[in-house]
Amino acid sequence: MTNIYSTLKHNHWYRNCIINSTMADKNKKVYFCPKCGPFIKVLKELWTCSSEGPYKIEFIHHINKNAEVVDEVEIKSRPEGEKVEYSYCGKCNQLIGKEENMKWTNDIIQMELNQ
Fold it and tell me: What is the DSSP letter of 111?
């Protein structure tokens, strides 16, 4: 299985997009797929802990290296309970983690690339 760091080491475009970010990027959010890399399209299901299915689906794109909701479908009104989110890569459909802060992500990737 390919991890994000080996993908970045072999893909010059991804590497430059992430490492050459500015201080203004520190508040930006980014999603990663272990298979497809950063800056992917994302489908996010929003549930509550007491619901039997998602109450909303969000479609997320990266615009200027920032994850932004570009569209959403409200299936029903939000049920009571704590919000639960499931994010999927828009390319390979793999379940992925939540968005990460771009500044933190840059620091981690820079350390990995320098090894």
Answer: H
Nearest to 34 by CA among 96, 91, 99: 96
Distances in Å between the alpha carbon of 92 and those of 33, 48, 113, 114? 9, 25, 24, 28
pTM of the entire predicted model: 0.69
Task: Give 23-55 pLDDT, tens digit per residue.
Answer: 455 678 999 999 998 899 999 999 999 899 999
- Residue for token digits 């992925």? 96
Cα–Cα distance between 92 and 7 in angstroms, integer?
A: 15
Q: Which band of pLDDT confidence, cut at 50, 70 and 90, is reported for residue 67? A: very high
| Listed residue (38, 83, 33) closest to 58, CA to CA | 83
Residue reference for tokens 């890399």: 37
